[in-house]
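Re: that chain you flagged

S.,

Sorry for the slow reply, it's been a week of failed gels. I finally had a moment to sit down with the sequence you sent. For the record, here it is as I used it:
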Amino acid sequence: MRSEAVKEILMNKTDRELAFLYDLYVAPDWSERFAELINEHVKMPAKEGRALYVGAATGSHVMLLHERSSGQLTITGVDESADRVRIARAKATAAKRGAELQFQTSRLDVLDYPDNTFALVVGDATMIEPERLPDVLAEMSRVAARGATVALNIVSASSFGEFFSIYWEALHSAELDEHAYEVPSLINELPTVSQVEEMAAGAGLKTIESWTSLEEFHFPSGEEFLQAPLVSDFLLNRWFDMVLPADDEHSRTQVEEQIVKLIDEERADLDFVLSIKATLVAGRKA
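Prediction finished late last night. Pasting the structure tokens below so you have them in one place:
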């Protein structure tokens, strides 16, 4: 298990450090899988114009979409992390595309753009709280031009099932049964595809379609699962915060130990697999 000193370092990363970890570890694995859905199902506008990428993170997919448009689009990427935006700007400058690619910090559910502005609006909402999805979709639709495509990536229901099962058992093994009953809230907060399609319709989109890809993430051991930046720095924080008291480090340590033990017992020398349903929902603004 990790030493207390190492845990302290991991728990106190700065926003800048988290942005670099996202760019190095999360974007090339997690984000690229969702980006592939956009690449496959979203067509670039045929004419020159402006596009918006909501949840652009460190900008890698924004740059790829710009290449797909043959340079016809001016793309603005927005993200809630100022440090991720700085990395994206540095990439655009290094690629000498600073004029065509712009990156700005913004809340995803309160976009600072006029109505009917963009010829295409795409987004990645896979790392935000599911309860914010209706507002994010509503804002994306608001700033899209009439007839423009609006497309959003999400994590849909039935994702993370392998972990949630182990999480419940770990809480029970750590004699934290009063918190184990909160685990279903994590399961139930993930929207079904039909629910997100309803959100899109409520946001004013028509001809709504969706596509889902089953994705798997493999971890050789319980310890490597907990130490993976995708898990330790991004996913696990919410899973812990929704179930365990924020200031109870002793309980969190107990649960971590049980998670490692249970994963290693159940995987039988095989990789522990974390599966998700990557979903893209798209429609046109009426």
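What I noticed first: Residues 192 and 265 are 31 Å apart (CA to CA).

Talk soon,
D.
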